[in-house]
Amino acid sequence: MGQSITARAHTNIALIKYWGKQNPELIIPYNSSLSMTLDHFYTDTTVRFSTDLTADQISFNGAIADTKTSTQMSQFLDLIRKQAHLPLFAAVETINHVPNAAGLASSASGYAALAAAGSRAAGLELNDRDLSRLARRGSGSATRSIYGGFVEWQRGTNDLDSYAVPVQETVDWDIQMIAIVLNDRQKAIASRAGMANTVATSPYYPAWVETAQAAIPAMKAAIVKKDINLVGQLAEQSAMQMHATTLSAVPPFTYFEPETLQAIKVVQTLRQQGVSCYYTMDAGPNVKVICTSQETPQILAALAPYFSPEQLLVAKPGPGVSYR
Ligand code: 2P0
After folding, report:
1. Closest-lying ligand 1 atom to the alpha carbon of residue 17
2. Gene3D superfamilies under this entry (predicted)?
């Protein structure tokens, strides 16, 4: 019986978005991305390889995982088995401390935690760079969840040189996010299919790659300056430029819903009143507000007429992977 290892990884929200793969099998992106890891939302995953098992046993929050999830996770475990020369099945228990359907990517924290617990349980001692490369094979956004604070996923061109690096691991200035959970319906278009369609058909896609790459050094400079307004402006631009590529895809599609625009309007109005707040959104309708903790009460009050307290989740910058 192998050792049982538990790892914790936190989810992250991209400020400069990842959108599109130059290599879908290895998950090598067309553009670098830059994110903030969140404190409140994380995944705890326990992995044990065992001679007693005749198949991988995978559970989520205490229940057996569905076939699609189990298959994806088993394929990911195959990468670890191959690297460790370990021909054993694994028992995997995952507890997601990401509120149900919060519109926060649980694949980011999920695959980062699975990479960390799985590799260690298999006897591999990976450094953070190799852990980031491994997590990348599960889900692109997981590449960044190895580190805390602000993190850059350097796109690279192949399996060896596409990984995340810390930009600012300890965030000692006032920046946080309010996640506005607009609805918990299943996404109409999964991000994986959405980005593939965009890469293949949007005439704006080459411009997306160029502008996203140019935004990375600008965002890093804004983080070094601890300039919330510059960080927010650049993040907002990146999000809307990404969403413009979906509108220009053939056939066109969008993740916007009416409530998305309602939330954006509240943020814009607050900003006109002098509040430093900016919006971003991912492959779903939910809006995340980038702001200071100081102004958060005022922003929550402005959102209150439209959204219930349960729909408004506040998160500060969080840490990288740890072992329990
Ligand atoms: C991001 N998103 O940078 C971007 C912005 C959504 C929009 O990464 O196919 O689950 O597993 O690599 O990482 C969500 O997509 O996609 C995502 P795969 P992933 O956070």
Report:
1. 3
2. 3.30.230.10, GHMP kinase, C-terminal domain
